[in-house]
Structures are given as C-alpha cells and as structure tokens.
Amino acid sequence: MTYQHFSIEERESLQYMWWDRKSIRSMAKVLNRSPSSISRELKRNFPACRNTYTPRVAQERALSKRRCRGRTNRLKNDRIRQYVVFHLKKRWSPEQIAGKIKSQIGESISHEAIYRFIYASISYGKPRPGFEDLRPYLRRHRKMRQPKGVRRYQRLSKYQGLSIDKRPSIVNTRHRLGDWEGDTVESVNHRPGINTLVERKSGLVFITKLNGKAADNTTKAIQSRFRNLPDKLKHTLTMDNGPENSDWRSIEETAGTKCFYAHAYHSWERGTNENTNGLIRDYYPKKTDFSNISEEEIQFIESELNTRPRKRLGWKTPLEVFSVALGG
After folding, report:
1. Is the distance from CB of 171 to CB of 181 less than 8 angstroms?
2. pLDDT surpasses 70 at 21
3. Cα Rg for the chain, rounded, in angstroms?
C-alpha cells in the first residue's frame, strides 16, 4: 500500500481532536489512518518549547522535506511552462493542473514537478533573475484558523435541531448528490460576510453575500439557492451550530431539505465546507470587508471554484458532475 501524506485538512482535524482530548485510536478512526501513523505525526511535530500540535508548522515542515529531495529549475518545454503558469494564476493547484493538462494540450507532467519548478525559482527568499515568484498563487495555511464554536459551545441545546449523529449514514459515503454543508465566512470586525453551501459529492459551491448577521439573513440566502433545485438534489444540509443558523425550521419548510447540526468545535464534520472556505480565503483573506465586495465579484469566485478540475472527481469539475444530475 502506498503511503499517503497527511493533508493540511487532516492536520487541522488532528489539532481539534487534540484540543478535545481524543485518544490516538479515536483520531485514527476519524481520519481512517492507523494509530501508529497518528502517533508518529504527533510526536514528530510537537515542539520542545510548547506542548501543542500546530498544523501549519507540521505542513510546512513536511513540504520542506519533500522539496529538499531534488529540484529542477525548469519544466520540459515552453508549452508546458506557459500552461502551468497560466493556470496557477487562475488559482488551480499543481495537482489540478497535472490532472487536466494531458487532456487539454496532450502533454503530461507530475504535480511534484510543478512544485519543484515553483520553489527552484527562489533563492534566499527572492526570485532568481529571470524567474517569477509563483508562490503567492499556491494555497497557503500560514495563519491558523480559530476553532469555530468554542465561544458558542453552550448554545446548541436551545436550538433543539437534529444532531449530526441522527443524520442518515448514506451521507457519509458521498454516493449520492444532494447532501450539503453550510457555513458563514465572517467579514472584518465580525460584520456580515458570506454564506457558503457546498454539495458533498460534487464539491459544487453556492456563495451568497449576506445583508446582516441575524438568522433570517442566512435563511433567506439558503432559500434563494435551494428554491429551484429538484428534491433529489437537496436531501440534507449540515450546518455549524452558530446563531446565524438557528432558524432550521424555516429552512426545512421553505427550502425543502432536512437540517442537521455539527458538534461544537468539530469542524472536520463539515470538512468539505471547511476546505472550500479555505479556497475562498485565497481570494478574500481574513479581515476582508465583504461590504466592499460586489455581487459580481462574489459570483465570479463561485464560477472559478465550480469550474476547477478535482482529483477525486477524475479531474472533472464540480459543475460538470452536478450538471449531469440536473439533466444538462
């Protein structure tokens, strides 16, 4: 069996579970990894000065080790280089580029070669003469995400919504379309931001600008995006347990879906949504004031994300997969 490196999402989940005092075996079960792999990852990345696990540091250390195995300062030819640079600037990941390049220009290259090309162009933190710094176009995780729900831990009980524990088991398999995850990306100073809805199987995302932080604003956003979907494409919606998502009864009645709440500070239970929010932060980092972002810009980002090829979809795009179910 080929060893699969830990992803940044897995490392963030490890951090949350460590904070939650989960056992090694519990962590391994959640991440579908062996207990020995979890144990090695934690031991390897516990700094002597602090008794804590930091996913950003662990990820950067792992990437650094891989980069040091060998470098090259150029791709095979100009055609490949132009394709790679163009799509990096469209915020495609090296894996997405490597997965799609052969079908589009008849050439092939590995994602590792793309990473080597990017980092071999840098010397002492600056681009080498004649080279462009392409690192800003990679996904970065240099700022730790604050664990959601820590301050809201005691609030879930008053909403009396269904726990994720009651959600149908078929949702976990991703075998069907129509199971969604929802969240809010906050604006600067906790002002109204955007609502994100992500379909678990295809990865299709709906991004809607919010006019306020009250629950009715989130409810209206969900209603507007679900209104024209057929019933077969809106089975369930799993949400964060914040007050902005408290009006689950109205959502169920008007949007035609069944709502469930994730556990407090268990962001991995909405992993698809969390990952997509990270992609959105590539365009709009923390401290963005979404009141200054137009609806047109929001829809442009939505289109960009929905037309990126995904490895788990066989390099199809979320829109391609979702459109088949829509009959078009």
Report:
1. no
2. yes
3. 21
